[in-house]
Amino acid sequence: MKPARTRFAPSPTGHLHLGGARTALYAYLLAKQTGGQFLLRIEDTDVKRTIPGAEQEIIDGLHWLGLDYDEGPDIGGKFAPYRQTERREIYQRYAKILIDNDKAYPCFCTPDQLEKTRQEQLKRKENPRYAGTCRNIPPAEAAKRSADGEAHTVRFKMAQEGVTIAHDHLRGDIATDNKQLNDQVLIKSDGLPTYHLAAMVDDHEMQITHVIRGSEWLGSFPLHVNIVRAFGWEEPTWVHLSVFLKPSGKGKLSKRDSAEANKDGHSVFIKDMEDLGFTPEGVLNWAALMGWGVAEDDVLTLSQMIERFSIDSLTPSPAAVNFQKLDHFNATHIRRLTPEDLSARLKPYFTREGLKVNDDVLQKIIPLIRERLTTLDDCLAFGAFFFKEDVSPTPEDLIAKGLDAKQSAEVAKKCLEILSSLASIDHATAEPALRAYVEESGLTPNQVFGILRVATTGQKVSPPLFESMEIIGREKCLQRIQTALQLLEKI
Ligand code: GLU
User: Fold this and answer.
1) Which of 244, 264, 337, 349 could form a disulfide with 341 if both were Cys (CB 3.0 to 4.6 A apart)?
2) Confidence (pLDDT) at 195
3) Hey, whose CA ends up nearest to atom 2 of ligand 1?
4) Is 213 near ligand 1, meaning CB less than 6 Å away?
5) How far is the CA of 10 from the centre of ligand 1 (A)?
6) What is the CATH number of domain 339-384?
């Protein structure tokens, strides 16, 4: 296949979310697989909806995911600028070409007039559409009125007869009766283009070969192919991706679902993912398989995806978002990281809790906790105690099942004696000594080791006890058991 040039063209009007990330991923994969280029273009012509900081969030999100672009607003490129508000003159020039070729016309209708017509149409139960008032103003008169500074928009002159056949790579030919189509605005009265004109012009100028975008654009698709054809340009391959459904599979994913997802530690926003302990590998793998017909449980890295990707295997069928799958992919990718990589990624989760991380200790706990991690921040639940000076167990947790506080204190005291008598409490030394005590005491391992676990780690669930104690170290363990004993004696 010829090198593809693809783009991710978000509007900076909100957070980068799952849908955008998946669109960017597919565009990236196609470009990389074919030895082409992937570029970022910021579509900010709807100035009122632009949110400060949104562009940076998009850039940061793409970098975090590892979807590095070859051209973009912050790095430039052959077709700069890559921010549409900086390309205003380009769109004006192209709009003029359409006007000169009778494919577009200036429209002088005021917002009030347009609204009045709309209301009348609604009253007659008609679909609101432009009434065509300015469509037939003689070009010379229209040109004069524009030149005299009369406020106007530029509208596309849509054919009123016939049918538009638009070809989507996943859906085949889509036929639309031209009577259904409207004379859409291409240039607004503020001189900025609408998405319809800007995106078509930029895709042409930037030599985009494949337009991969969300299915919300299927409605304007016939208009878009008409614009491209009016210029006489070669059409890109159009790929409208599948929609995301709610986790229940019923209805489209909405804002409310993302609030719901937050409740159990998930999110559809990329900027939250890192905070929540997700890895870019897990997120990409999860996003990739919603809408791509590879096996649902295929564990793929970005480079494996580049090898296997094909736009022919994308599916137009809606995909229900399944957060359990995200957990699964995240956990799987965590297990595949090298110990060095994993420790580097875990460290910030400890430090953001104010813990001082000893790198040697961190290296040592990796084998103990990695199998237990679904998200990176789970390391806190399983390993924060390794980096604390003291732990503060709930006194009641120190009471073993079937024993009372006094009996549990006896056990703690005995353990303290045994461990104090040992020169080292490494796993191989401490375990046999403590197991011998379990045998002779007639207690169960659960009772004895349970007390020790809560005493030394401060919690009921922890990585394996003896390995943990070895890493915590003799002095700290003895001191923690001593504190536990005092707590038990006070109950
Ligand atoms: N700016 C459009 C959006 O954010 C881009 C659609 C496209 O990729 O062409 O939805």
Assistant:
1) 337
2) 97
3) 10
4) yes
5) 5
6) 1.10.8
CATH 1.10.8 intervals, the chain: 339-384
Question: Per-residue pLDDT for 364 more than 80?
Answer: yes
In the predicted structure, residue 398 carries a pLDDT above the cut 90: yes
Q: For the residues 412-430, what does the mean pLDDT come to?
A: 97
Q: What is the pLDDT of residues 264-297, one digit of tens each?
A: 999 999 999 999 999 999 999 999 999 998 877 7
Give 54's contacts (C-beta < 8 A, 6+ positions apart). Answer: 12, 13, 14, 15
The average pLDDT across 442-448 equals 98
Return the CATH number of the domain spanning residue range 257-336. Answer: 1.10.1160.10
Distance 185 CA to ligand 1 centre (A): 17
CATH topology of domain 87-240: Glutamyl-tRNA Synthetase; domain 3 (3.90.800)
| Closest-lying ligand 1 atom to the alpha carbon of residue 43 | 1
Confidence band of 361 (pLDDT split at 50, 70, 90): very high
Centroid of ligand 1 to alpha carbon of 4 (angstroms): 18
Residue 8 Cα to ligand 1 midpoint, Å, equals: 8
pLDDT at 258: 82
Q: Is the CB of 194 under 6 A from ligand 1?
A: no
Confidence of residue 237 (pLDDT cuts 50, 70, 90): very high
9 lines ligand 1 (CB under 6 A): yes
- What pLDDT was estimated at residue 483? 98
Q: Does domain 395-490 have CATH number 1.10.10.350?
A: yes
Where does the pLDDT of residue 209 fall: very low under 50, low under 70, confident under 90, or very high at 90 and above?
Answer: very high
Residue of 39, 41, 204, 213 to test ligand 1 pocket, by largest number of atoms within 8 Å of CB: 213
Q: Let me know if 250 is a catalytic residue.
A: no
450 within ligand 1 shell (Cβ under 6 A): no
Beta bridge partners of 6: 38, 210
Of the residues 255, 263, 356, 401, only one is catalytic, namely: 255
